[in-house]
C-alpha cells in the first residue's frame, strides 16, 4: 500500500484519513475525548473533528430497489454510496451521494433491453447448439458470453443509452461469478460448450474494460478452495473495475456469524483488494431485525474494521429497520492509526489464544475522539481465552435500537473485555 495517496476528496497516510469538499464523509476541528458512558449518538451535531464522520456506507435507496420514504437530504449525512434506479441518479448526486447503477450483462431475461440488442454470438450455447439458461426466482435467464466482442459491443451501447443525461459514478455489475461456483444441474441443457473458469475470468476482464465506465463487480462471495474468489483478479487487474462486492459479508440470515474459513477468506479478500487501491464493498446478508441482532452487528463491525481501509472499504448493512434505510449507528465508529499495519495475510492477526485482534491508537464516533480501541473476533466454533493487549481497556462497545434514522444508539460503557470469548463472538474493546 502507498503511504500517502489521494482518493476522491480524501487523503490517506497509513490509516489516517482526512476528507475535504462536499462529498461524504462529513468532516469538521479535533474535539476532546468522549467520556465513557456517554450516549455518543447524541454527539453527532456537536462534533468538530477533521476525521471522517463515518465509515464509507452503501444502501439501496429509492425506487425500484430501496425505500422511497427517505429523501436524499435525509440520507446524505450517513450514506456514501446509493444503489439506485437511474432516474434518481442526478438527485442523489446533487445531495453528495455517490451512486452505483445495477447492470447484469452476463445473465439476461427476455424482457431486458440488452436481450433484444444482443446478436446470437453474444449468447452462451451448449455443444448441441442450444442457448444455455438458468432460472432465478422462477424467471428464465440466458447465460451470455462475456469474452465475445458481440456482447461487449452490446453492453457498451446499452450503458451509453441508459446513462445518457445522468450522473452515474459506477456500474454495479451483478452475476459476474464464474459458473463453476454453482451446483451441477443449475444450467440447461449444460454449461456453455467448452466452458472454463479461466476463459470466463478473461472474458470478465474484457467485458469490464469495454464498457467505458467505472465498475463495482459483484460475486466475490464465490470463494475458491477456502480462499478468495477468482474474480479478485478481475478487480485488481482492470483499471476501470474500481472495486468488488462481497455478498453475505461476515453475516447472513441463515448464518448470522460467518465462521472459520469463510470468515478468513472474507478478510483476505478485503486485504487483497485494499492493498491494490480497490474498493471492498462488504454487503452483510443478515436481514433480521437490527434491534434483535446486536451480537451479530458487533461481530460484523469488528470483522469489517479488523482489516478495513477507511478510504476504500464500504459497509453495506442489510439488517431490517422500520424506515427501510439500513445504515446503522455503528457505521459512525471509525478506527484509525493501527498498531499493526495492514497485513498481507489474515493469519498475521491471529493471536496465540486462537482469536483475531487488531488494535488502533485513535478511534472516533461521528468525528468525536473516543480513545484507543481493539477489534477482537473469535471465528471458531469453540470458546477461547481473550488475547493480551498492548493498550489498556476497561470497557466494550454496546448498542441498542435500529438505524441512524430511528435514533439507534451506541454506548461506550459496556462491561470489561471478557476473560473467555464464546464461540462465534466478537467485541470492540475501549478505554
What is the gyration radius calculated from CA atoms?
22 Å
Query: Quick one: biggest sheet?
Result: 8 strands, parallel, barrel
How many structural domains are formed by the residues? 1
Query: Residue-averaged pLDDT, rounded?
Result: 90
List the helices and strands and how they pair.
Elements: E1 4-7, E2 10-13, E3 16-19, E4 56-60, H1 72-75, E5 81-84, H2 89-94, E6 98-103, E7 107-108, H3 113-117, E8 133-136, E9 139-143, H4 149-163, E10 170-173, H5 197-210, E11 215-218, H6 231-237, E12 241-252, H7 260-275, E13 279-285, H8 294-307, E14 313-316, E15 333-338, E16 356-365, E17 368-378, E18 384-385, E19 395-396, E20 398-400, E21 409-411, E22 420-421, E23 425-430
Parallel strand pairs: 4-5, 4-14, 5-6, 6-10, 10-11, 11-12, 12-13, 13-14
Antiparallel strand pairs: 1-2, 2-3, 7-9, 8-9, 15-16, 16-17, 17-23, 18-22, 19-23, 20-21
Description:
- The protein has 431 residues and is of the alpha/beta class.
- The protein has one domain.
- Helices cover 19% and strands 26% of the residues.
- It contains 8 helices and 23 strands.
- It has helices at 72-75, 89-94, 113-117, 149-163, 197-210, 231-237, 260-275, 294-307; strands spanning 4-7, 10-13, 16-19, 56-60, 81-84, 98-103, 107-108, 133-136, 139-143, 170-173, 215-218, 241-252, 279-285, 313-316, 333-338, 356-365, 368-378, 384-385, 395-396, 398-400, 409-411, 420-421, 425-430.
- The strands form 6 sheets. An 8-stranded parallel β-barrel has the order 4-5-6-10-11-12-13-14. A 5-stranded antiparallel β-sheet has the order 15-16-17-23-19.
- A hairpin with a 2-residue loop joins strand 1 (4-7) and strand 2 (10-13).
- Helix 4 (149-163) packs parallel to helix 5, helix 5 runs parallel beside helix 6 (231-237) and helix 7 (260-275) crosses helix 8.
- The chain is globular.
- The model is unreliable at 1-49 (pLDDT under 50).
